[in-house]
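Practice problem: predict the structure.
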Amino acid sequence: MARRSLKASIVGIEKAKRAFQIREWTQEYLASEVGLETRQPIWKFFTGKPIERQSFMEICFQLGLDWQKIAELPTGGAVTEKKLDWDSCQDIDALVEMVRKQRSDKIQAQCATMRLLDISQPIELEDIYVDVNIQNNITSQRWLDIFELQGFSKEFDRFPWDQCHELVPALQTVATYPKLMVLGKPGSGKTTFLQYIATQCNQGKFQRDRIPIFIRLKNFAEDARETGDFSLLNYITQELAYFGICDQQIQTLLAHGKLLILLDGLDEIPEEDSAEIVKKIRKLSEEYYKNQFIITCRIGTQQYRFEGFTDIEIADFDAFQIEAFVQKWFVNVGRNSSEQAQAKASQFMQKLQLSENGHIRELAVSPLLLNLVCCVFQTRSDFPARQVELYKQGLDILLNRWDQVRSIKRDGIYGDLSLPHKLKLLSQIAAITFKQERYFFTKSNVRQYIADYLRNLPTAQADDPEVLQLNSEAVLKSLLAHGLLVERARGIYSFSHLTFQEYLTARNIVTSPKPEILEEKLLELVSHVTEPRWRKVFLLTAGMLGHAPDLLQLMKQQIDALVGADEQLQQFLIWLNQKSLSVQAPYKAAAIRAFYLTLVLPRDLSITRDLTLSLAIDPRVAGNLATDLTVDLALNRALSLSLALAADPTLDRVLALSFALTYDIDVFCDCEFEQSLQQLKKQLPAPDQGRERLKKWWNANGQTWVEKLRSLMLRCRNIGHQWQFSDQQKEVLKQYYAANQLLVDCLKVACEVSPTVREQISETLLLPITRTSGGASEKKVYLATGNVVKLW
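Answer:
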């Protein structure tokens, strides 16, 4: 059994005194470095008296000495023999195997399971773990300026930053670099990754020549505060000694670099302990440099750099990692059968790829938030139509619950802010920057936004600029720690997800304290109704407003005003309404108007023949199309084909024209129209005449034939008008169509809207504005009976 005390030899004392003199320390300072309450053990050490074994080893460590060369050790064969044996390669490997075996159960208990947020039972690590990647070549982006970042982001869809970097498997990086600082956003999987490394090493599947030591730095700090001993070396020694590993064996393992030291959560250490613990980490990694060290820390919070350490950042999940996580989740967390889990995972991924769920895809790149999305999907096999609650929960997790789960307390001014104040501050930052189309902002900008908010708090102190600046800096640091703001380049920040910036912008509107302020913000919002980047803000605002009709009616007025002053566009809408009233179809009138709007628009418009709005108003349009609409669809295609034939007659186009004039028109009951159409068909040349004859016929007769077809369509079907819109009018029509689509989508997510108001707005979509004698505009609903109902 190892002796409990050691004393320095005569030669060792001389070496220790020289090392002590070089450092120019006092005995009191050395005692504090070792973690001793008095300098008495230091005095005993230098006078060759026995002191506690662990204190002896720590004194030597602080002086940069090998304790075995300083201590007066027995010269009998036993100890010397053992030391020589452990120094041989064969025996070192045997020692590693022995220690790993003795500590195997402890590592498995520490690292083989994990807890997911809102899941009641622990989950086996291997049942949910997905291999992570790290971002490579991120240094160059650190030096981009704000204008380069703005342009850079436009090349990608909603800032998937990992597309900009080479991704490397994280385990490959661990195998490459002996000392790593693993950075990542909250919930990005840093701790899980460290646990995975520990279990793989413990099982001999990774770094099998080393022994894993897993330390949660927050727990270490708590223990160190209780004992007054902040020495990591002592902590590791005591950990190994518990399993019967003697001091000599521990020193041999350290000296030969046989430990894989995993330090989790550098950012979670209390502020008052951080400097001391960082110093101990630095000393341990420098003294025992042959061992492998991996430290994890939230990105944006690392204030310390360790010599010889390589900084890497865990990348967001890509599509393959999301799918792998989802499949494991529904089997092992959702507790579904294998078949049910596979079906749900497949359904989840299919719905996630839909364009309307792009904002959920943004959140799903984080394992923490992907778990939330899976929980929501588990009960209903779908994502919520109103995504407001999902974003609200996501923010609550990042701002509040994740810190609570990990028992992290924020100190200073930020710790005094309540959750509502934090949300209000973030909402103000989001609203200001989003309105200015600034997805990136400098450190001075964001500090100023924070200072302006803190200055207006009821508990604000005197307007001391220096105090305000320090407080703003502290709040910014905490927001970075939450992962809601991220540093994209040196001194340039953005929201981690554009979705959160949009949600907080909408929240800034709906939480306005006074009705007049709310009205002012709603008027400001509807002025952006034609801007695509505001679409999500409109939907979120409609979903959060306690009384949405005000917003919806303001949107309706703004949309109608887009075309209200243009007489030609008004004439077009008048025709559109008349045409919709003339057809027989079991759809809502507005859906019929939307169908004909895109049917007859010039082909060079992107919305031509787009049924998105029509289907959104009435999903029944997706079924068997009503006869009137089928006939007009075929006729409009025939007219388009005949115009193309006149320019370039080809056999394919002739066949397509013949098909268009036949398809479903034979079910039409208007005999006069059908007879006239058949006569026109008979005038067409036979397709088998060859290309030259076809071309000759179309050159001679094509224009006349097209005009006859158009005349028949106009006379019998009231379609085929040659609407000559300017480029500006075409752009207005595109905006008008998209804005109406947005209004319909807002109607769907707005809860507190009466059926009467909902129906009133829906029925008056895509109608013209008429003028009263006084010059004011009215909106009228033209009913099939001929009656007119005035809206305003």
